[in-house]
Design brief:
The structure holds two protein chains of two kinds.
Chain A lengths: L4 E3 L2 E5 L4 E6 L6 E7 L5 E8 L4 E4 L2 E6 L4 E6 L8 E10 L2 E4 L3 E6 L1
Parallel strand pairs in A: 2-11
Antiparallel strand pairs in A: 1-3, 3-8, 4-5, 4-9, 6-7, 7-8, 9-10, 9-11
Chain B lengths: L4 E3 L2 E4 L5 E6 L6 E8 L3 E9 L2 E4 L8 E7 L2 E6 L8 E8 L5 E2 L3 E5 L1
The chains are: A mainly beta, B mainly beta.
């Protein structure tokens, strides 16, 4: 079953703009991860944030986690055409078993 | 490292036929996962192996589905008999910690 739910379902932005997507989940977690999936490909791990962390950065990515609200956000700054993909949050409650959300489809227009 | 390898990449079969999907995890990874992705249900975990032992198969839809991991470098997912509703992309992923590494997937079409 899907624990994470992403919002919005789809996002279209101009190259150079920032893209923000959110994830809400239901149960306690050990960590929350974000993955990217390009069309017709497998998922690629982007970033992991632990339950005791509030913010994490990796290159143009910024992730926040609010465990009191059971929510996370992923910010992609200065977007590029290559960022066009679907983005999934995944929660790890125990034993490295991940529950994935439905994903946000991001389209970056040139 | 070549990453997670899956075969075949595409499979088209007729209802009632047996289908076998194959996965070679990344060397040294001790966990292996089989997922199914569809538009309607998203990405679902089917089964999870740790050190070649099935730990959680609660996601396997029904008895028509079976998975094996005879050794650390090979796993199979079998559907017998296949049905049109089994049409999906099936992913294998492996890990040695919290991050999972996904294969390219097998797109299965059951006519």
């Amino acid at each position: 079953s899907q624990q994470g739910e992403e919002d919005p379902q789809a996002l279209s932005i101009q190259e150079g703009e920032n893209a923000t997507m959110n994830c809400s989940y239901k149960t306690s977690i050990n960590n929350l991860q974000w993955y990217r999936q390009n069309s017709g490909r497998g998922l690629v791990h982007l970033i992991l944030i632990r339950s005791n962390e509030r913010e994490k950065h990796s290159g143009r990515l910024r992730v926040t986690l609010d465990t009191s609200k059971k929510s996370s956000s992923l910010l992609i700054t200065a977007s590029r055409a290559a960022d066009t993909a679907s983005y999934f949050c995944a929660t790890d409650a125990r034993d490295y078993k991940l529950s994935f959300g439905a994903g946000t489809t991001v389209t970056v227009r040139a | 490292d070549a990453g997670v390898i899956q075969s075949p990449r595409h499979e088209v079969t007729e209802m009632g036929q047996e289908v076998t999907l194959r996965c070679k995890p990344i060397s040294g990874h001790n966990s292996l996962f089989w997922y199914r992705q569809t538009m309607m249900r998203g990405l679902e975990l089917l089964i999870y192996f740790n050190n070649n032992v099935p730990i959680d198969d609660s996601g396997m839809p029904e008895d028509r589905f079976s998975a094996k991991m005879p050794n650390a470098s090979f796993s199979t997912l079998k559907i017998q008999p296949s049905e049109p509703r089994d049409s999906a992309v099936y992913f294998c992923a492996s890990s040695s910690g919290e991050e999972q590494f996904f294969g390219p997937g097998t797109r299965l079409t059951v006519l």
